Amino acid sequence: MLRLVSRAARCWGARRGLARVHPAAMQQACLSSTAAGTGTWPKDVGILALEVYFPAQYVEQSELESYDGVEAGKYTRGLGQQQMGFCAAHEDINSLCLTVVQRLVERGRLSWDAIGRLEVGTETVIDKSKAVKTVLMELFRESGNTDVEGIDTTNACYGGTASLFNAASWVESSAWDGRYAVVVCGDIAVYATGNARPTGGAGAIAMLVGPNAPLVLERGLRGTHMEHAYDFYKPDLSSEYPVVDGPLSIQCYLRALDRCYAVYRRKAESQWQQAGIQRPFTLDDFKFIIFHTPFCKLVQKSVGRLLLNDFLAATNPDTASGLYKGLQPFRGMKLEDTYTSKEVEKAFQTASQEIFNQKTKPSLLLSSRNGNMYTPSMYGCLASLLAQCSAQDLAGSRIGAFSYGSGLAASMFSLRVSQDAAPGSPLDKLLSSLADLPARLDARKRVAPQDFADIMKRREETHHLANHTPHGSQADLFPGTWYLERVDDKYRRQYARKPM
Amino acid sequence: MLRLVSRAARCWGARRGLARVHPAAMQQACLSSTAAGTGTWPKDVGILALEVYFPAQYVEQSELESYDGVEAGKYTRGLGQQQMGFCAAHEDINSLCLTVVQRLVERGRLSWDAIGRLEVGTETVIDKSKAVKTVLMELFRESGNTDVEGIDTTNACYGGTASLFNAASWVESSAWDGRYAVVVCGDIAVYATGNARPTGGAGAIAMLVGPNAPLVLERGLRGTHMEHAYDFYKPDLSSEYPVVDGPLSIQCYLRALDRCYAVYRRKAESQWQQAGIQRPFTLDDFKFIIFHTPFCKLVQKSVGRLLLNDFLAATNPDTASGLYKGLQPFRGMKLEDTYTSKEVEKAFQTASQEIFNQKTKPSLLLSSRNGNMYTPSMYGCLASLLAQCSAQDLAGSRIGAFSYGSGLAASMFSLRVSQDAAPGSPLDKLLSSLADLPARLDARKRVAPQDFADIMKRREETHHLANHTPHGSQADLFPGTWYLERVDDKYRRQYARKPM
């Protein structure tokens, strides 16, 4: 069903010098230890490379405010959003993921043979049974490599993180055969007309996972919180739009943040204690903090929320000067009593303003200019941070990461950036590959709100039609983008790729 | 939204003596090695316990033949099916999984705190965003344990296997904190009236995964084949019914079987070579073989197919006597040319009849009497095998396992049964817990085809309705079964549990 099939290229490791051992040799080594029934984890498992795809068109949030007839600043200052990327009907979750995986492999000069696992996190479900993953296997066809584990994972915006954790565990397990894992997350976030619409977005991110990574998943440092909630869900399967209880969802997000941070801190402090260090973990221990970003303003509030956590956990905080100055009235509060308190929110947002500016603001480039990508959202924050920091700024730092998916599933974990910031180092290469993000955002086409609304209407009308050629022009795609060409009478989808 | 919440019970390990180290101690040990950045895999990771849920009502396939006006034997001899379990509208994927997970924890006297990972494999998607996993978190509410990783995985019938692999990797990884993983797979397999309807079924299986297991996932022995195919999929999201290309799906299944067996054998032979053993891997090296079972007849053909693989791979097979007697005309055939050959199928099915009877037939109890459960299908075969073999028969044996999900994703792997078959051993306890399977099947209520058809019609009519009380009576449920009590106007689902 796929028209264009990509060419296998040279091994990524060969060019980048990251795979210190050839995959085949690694496989052999792994099988040896496997045969013995014992084995150890490889070193520095994490993210080796990262590719971003976002649509080539967007709408200005300030223009949307005026088009929607809401007060000026409601979307821009109120939500913290500048622009929103969107797809016409000829882009679907399969085309988004095809594009970003091919981009990862082509730009990294990776061989399709060198991938032993590929999994997809998404909530843009267009088939209840068939995974996006198996559509992506078309990219592997010429290589003959079909021994590629992993399928799709789903829980709202959390799927990418679940896939990343699965991939890292696989690399550390006896099932690992020395090849890379690829984690893809992608979504098209669209809402019915109304309040929630400006919190949409679309995009996909692919990550290459393996040992000796410049971004290492810190071992043992992971706090998870899962519970049953109906804050945001998609029970009307014939519609692209979710059912959302906005206020409940914000409370769920913040409660999950509190719980995850508590578990994360406890694990970090326990590791320190074993090393003879007795002190509390605080925000100071993260050089940067990235968040799942439904809208940017919530992230700014979240930094304040973490400061509230630090403040309440501190045994004797100085409220006369410094960071906690003037916060004495909030001593003794209980976290669970403060989710709807505007007073608490304002006080801690003000107190954490500088922390936000330093540790988090640079990560919001994609979120503010492309909008909420759902599963890739937090990884878009990571890409934004890497695109705007120098290797020297990042080297050796710890990046805190909070991933949230409604329903709900959330984890806080951390990435340790490698110390080696030299030109040509894995870190330098990773940053270089992302440096063009701002220019790529600038290169998009601005679409007037009325045209955006028309396109959304056509998506709605043609969503899930069989025997159908979707609306959308090749001209509105970046070169190298896969798109949906045709859905036949048996709902089979046929894709083509716009030439590079 | 859940009415009844279960009671936390004593730790499973405490009663069964399987968890040789207390979870907290294990967590500590893990954190130590984590802090050091190195670690080794725990011993014998695999399945510690297994629970099965199937509906309390069924239809006779022979009666269905007559009701459908097809020739006698079409479903019974042609497909190899005897009976088919089915659910009224008050059972959905959430209720199935709630029931089986609670059964696993209650019967195992496991503490909810002792579970650190829970994930769900299913293709019975009733919400595109919210995972079944988060509904299951209601069971953990009283315990306060929310640090439970894992979400839902989807690729047709393969989701359970993906979850099992993920869970085992997690136990071997640095993310493991010493607690158990639980893998749940469940599905309601229903088809529109016509040819495919008698291949339905419904059920759920929960597995407890950890170290020191009586059923060990053999390390390094795993062959996977994934490709893009439209053999069976569910693109009409408003319907419970799939789109099926039956002949294509059988070809895809058999091709995947060939490919997975080839990869599995290569890995097994490579392990042997490293141990100085030079010989081909054959069916003889599996004492038992279990398969994903869309219908039992396909599994019988599949055993023949594996024999064809052995035969074509053999350098100089004896066709004058023994197993391969009379098969000389098939020498030199290519696997890919034989998928539709009735001649090849018949010859190798006949030749493999005894192998099928010994290695596979006992595993088809649930498949033949309850039908296709989709994701739990192969694990139902495992349960059937364990329910009908003695500990002595099983001890030390290798069980080959072939998991297939349309779309397509497939893996062959193997389980090594522990040597210890003594009364009170983990193996003995596991078998004892499953010994009542035949009696539980006998205890179901037989429903006439017309009533079955009426219930299916009502499922179809009320599928995905909001503000709705589903059809179905508590009387048609086994004690302890969760059921869907109400769907409110915002599609939020409320469950209750029939008393034990």
From TrEMBL, chains A, B:
Domain of life where this protein originates: Eukaryota
Binding-site residues for CoA, renumbered to this chain: N195, S249, K297, K301
Entry function: Catalyzes the first irreversible step in ketogenesis, condensing acetyl-CoA to acetoacetyl-CoA to form HMG-CoA, which is converted by HMG-CoA reductase (HMGCR) into mevalonate.
GO BP of this protein: acetyl-CoA metabolic process; cholesterol biosynthetic process; farnesyl diphosphate biosynthetic process, mevalonate pathway
Hydroxymethylglutaryl-coenzyme A synthase N-terminal domain boundaries: 41-214
UniProt record similarity statement: Belongs to the thiolase-like superfamily. HMG-CoA synthase family.
Enzyme Commission identifier(s): 2.3.3.10
Pathway: Metabolic intermediate biosynthesis; (R)-mevalonate biosynthesis; (R)-mevalonate from acetyl-CoA: step 2/3
The protein's enzyme class: transferase
CDD domains linked: init_cond_enzymes
Species for this entry: Meleagris gallopavo
Protein location: Mitochondrion
GO cellular component: mitochondrion
InterPro entries found in the cross-reference section: HMG_CoA_synt_AS, HMG_CoA_synt_C_dom, HMG_CoA_synth_N, HMG_CoA_synthase_euk, Thiolase-like
Example GO molecular function: hydroxymethylglutaryl-CoA synthase activity
Catalytic reaction annotation: acetoacetyl-CoA + acetyl-CoA + H2O = (3S)-3-hydroxy-3-methylglutaryl-CoA + CoA + H(+)
Span of domain Hydroxymethylglutaryl-coenzyme A synthase C-terminal: 215-498
Residues the record marks as active site: E123 (proton donor/acceptor), C157 (acyl-thioester intermediate), H292 (proton donor/acceptor)
Protein name as catalogued: Hydroxymethylglutaryl-CoA synthase
